[in-house]
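Q: What changes when cytidine-5'-triphosphate is included in the input?
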Amino acid sequence: MLSGRRILLIISGGIAAYKSLDLIRRLREQGAAVRCVLTESATQFVTPLSVAALSEHKVYQDLFSLTDEAEMGHIRLSREADLVVVAPASANLIAKMACGLADDLASTALLATDKPVLIAPAMNVFMWNHPATQGNVAALAARGVHRVGPGAGELACGEVGEGRMADVPEIMAAIGRLIGVLPPEAKPLAGRRAIVTSGPTHEPIDPVRFIANRSSGKQGHAVAAALHRLGAEVTLVSGPVTLPPPEGVEIVPVETAAQMLEACLAALPADIAVCAAAVADWRVSNPGAQKHKKTEGGGPPTIALTPNPDILATLSQPGELRPALVVGFAAETELLLQHASAKLARKGCDWIVANDVSPASGTFGGDQNAVHLLTPDTVEAWPRMGKELVAERLAERIAAHFAKPHPTTSEVPA
Ligand code: CTP
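A: The predicted holo structure follows.
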């Protein structure tokens, strides 16, 4: 099935490296040519000899090996493959990829490649859930790096949780899809349009000052990327953030709440709206046309505020253009569920993702989130996880919602 296909397999250090030997065998069985790069720590887990024997080719290890460079430079090594697979992808190698480091053959080949890259992370559950790793994984996803796993279960270190490298058949299926020999992954949201709001808004006080908040946009951007991965056509209306726009998503950059509302209305009709932005509740009634100056003996300026439009409530209003599913976020610092369920009713949306944004939670600006999903009849507590995973889970729930048969008008009992 993979006859004539070329895979560059990068094996980094981790107990899961033993599974990579089986991966090489399976790839060879299916006719793929496999070139392997071992990191230094990978050689603690598998020997170059076994990798060479299974791949039936020499193994590349050293960036500065003159013979290797003369025969096959690291640039060519990374470019001649159809796909670069990193299995296992250790926390360390993922961090290097995210930062663009190139201090050994594996990281240099990954920086130099112009081919699709698939990572199969494997590590301890705490390392996987660490905000640093979650941030790195999110950065790679935003750059279009593909990922398979990790799965949950008992880990080699004895702990239980997420971090197990995906099994070989799962990795083979991901490779098959990326190389185009298997049908693309099911896209349950194909044909659906989604609007996602993300980030803070900036409300000008004068040309140089503004009112803002601590939102980073990480959660909203991750939701946009996750919906896109499931096939939705996504418009991401984002306040000022420093994040790269997720691949494949239409981005509409805005500054103020008024602009955010206008951009959302312009993006209608849509099937799904997810309002993850931290919209300023008020704007300055009369922002100065010129910078406010201090005056001799004068006191501080008085800033009058006007309420901003509520984008979530506006999108939730019944009418022809109302998206079929409107999801809000509730950012609370106390009485999380009480405030969130009141918000669900007040805003008229269908679901609320409630998150604790008290300073102790580290949610605002951080990489992790512990959320509750509220629907009119249910409350689900999700375990603390990376924002990327919250987004994936939410996107899957949205896809499941649309997969359920909904009564057509004629079937609704009178
Ligand atoms: N939201 C919105 N437009 C606003 C304010 C909030 O679209 N002007 C959306 C947010 O994107 C989020 C939800 O409403 O999906 C709740 O936002 P949150 O800041 O938690 O609540 P507020 O509505 O601002 O209410 P409060 O300040 O009383 O908590």
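Observations recorded in class: Confidence is low (pLDDT under 50) at residues 407-414.
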